[in-house]
Design brief:
The longest helix is centred in the middle third of the chain and has 16 residues. The chain contains 12 helices and 11 strands. The chain is α+β, with helices and mostly antiparallel strands and about 350 residues long. The strands form 2 sheets. It has a 6-stranded mixed β-sheet. It has 2 domains: about 130 residues, no CATH class; about 180 residues, 3-Layer(aba) Sandwich (Glutaredoxin).
Length: about 350
């Protein structure tokens, strides 16, 4: 359930045509910056769908064109349908804050382009466009490291964390229930992935989410990670019964389906052990500015599952894996088959 804006907002803000990006970043910048472009300014201009760039639009010394291109490749490189060109890096009245202007085009619509704008902070580590996210050639690395160390929820799939998918979900959230099929498919299609479930109940929206999460902690403690996933699936199936009069029976049935004793799980859920476990997961989400569910972190890149087409999500995961040295082979989904 949406509770606020996530880092995906920047991705959308910079993607006016709403598809991903690959492509080469190009520019027609001053000589000091033009070296970052993959080809000469003249050859880039000849093949470019973009307007001619005014060299006077490069007044800031940081970030460089190369740094912007590296960042955009990290953000958009999963999709070869997009090209871009850095159109300006300008000083602003705020010391050290630079305004970055980028022309963006979609290969499916030749001859058309749009303009996107974001700002970089003086430390060179953050970008702002509707939200604040990390900036740089590896903008997701810090989040990835935090999750590797602290995402200790129920896990399935590979033991290695080279490709780690961390889902933040609320067991009473309808969108999380819808995302369950997506996560099941990803587990099948990416056997290299280490997939972690982190509880993120939103009590102000879902009054029984905290209790459901705590009983899930207890099921895991008693019966293991696989039992937790069975429990979560059963809770999602009975989500409509999480009401004042139905919650006891719904959770008891889910605990039973997972092979645990409902009375033991209910008693355990009243302990500090269960509460502390859930609150640690909530604290992890807060530290990463995760404020909506369902949210999926792919090697540190935060993506709202319900807002991304499945095929696009697969491409992002495969691209992210490749950027981090993990080779995956995408299999076509039914919608891809002719």
């Amino acid at each position: 359930m949406l509770k606020g804006t996530g880092s995906w907002i920047l991705m959308l803000a910079l993607s006016c045509a709403a598809v991903g990006v690959q492509a080469q970043g190009t520019t027609q910048a001053p000589a000091a910056q033009a070296s970052a472009a993959p080809g000469s300014a003249q050859s880039a201009a000849a093949a470019s769908p973009f307007p001619v760039v005014n060299p006077k639009n490069f007044t800031a010394t940081s970030p460089t064109v190369e740094e912007v291109n590296s960042f955009l490749k990290a953000l958009w490189g999963y999709d070869d349908g997009r090209t871009w060109m850095v159109a300006g890096i300008l000083k602003t009245p705020a010391p050290g804050v630079a305004k970055v202007v980028v022309y963006v085009a979609d290969k499916a619509n030749p001859g058309k382009s749009s303009q996107s704008v974001f700002y970089t902070t003086p430390d060179g580590k953050h970008a702002i466009a509707g939200d604040v996210i990390d900036f740089g050639a590896k903008p997701f690395e810090v989040t990835r490291q935090i999750l590797e160390a602290r995402a200790n929820g129920p896990a399935q799939g590979a033991a290695s964390k080279q490709l780690e998918l961390v889902e933040f979900a609320d067991l009473e959230c309808p969108h999380c229930k819808e995302a369950e099929a997506t996560m099941d498919n990803l587990a099948r299609e990416f056997p290299q992935a280490h997939i972690v479930f982190e509880n993120l109940p939103i009590p102000e929206l879902h009054p029984y989410a905290m209790r459901a999460a705590e009983e899930g902690v207890c099921v895991r403690k008693a019966k293991g990670d696989a039992a937790f996933y069975t429990y979560a699936e059963a809770v999602f199936a009975k989500q409509s019964e999480l009401t004042l009069t139905g919650v006891d029976a719904a959770l008891a049935a889910a605990v039973t389906a997972a092979g645990d004793d409902p009375k033991d799980a209910a008693a355990c859920a009243q302990t500090d052990l269960a509460s502390d476990d859930v609150r640690a997961s909530m604290a992890l989400a807060a530290d990463l500015n995760v404020n909506q569910t369902p949210m999926l972190a792919v090697n540190g890149q935060l993506l709202p599952i319900s807002g991304i087409p499945y095929d696009t999500l697969k491409r992002i995961i495969a691209f992210r894996a490749g950027q981090d040295g993990v080779t995956v082979h995408l299999q076509p989904t039914l919608s891809d088959l002719k």
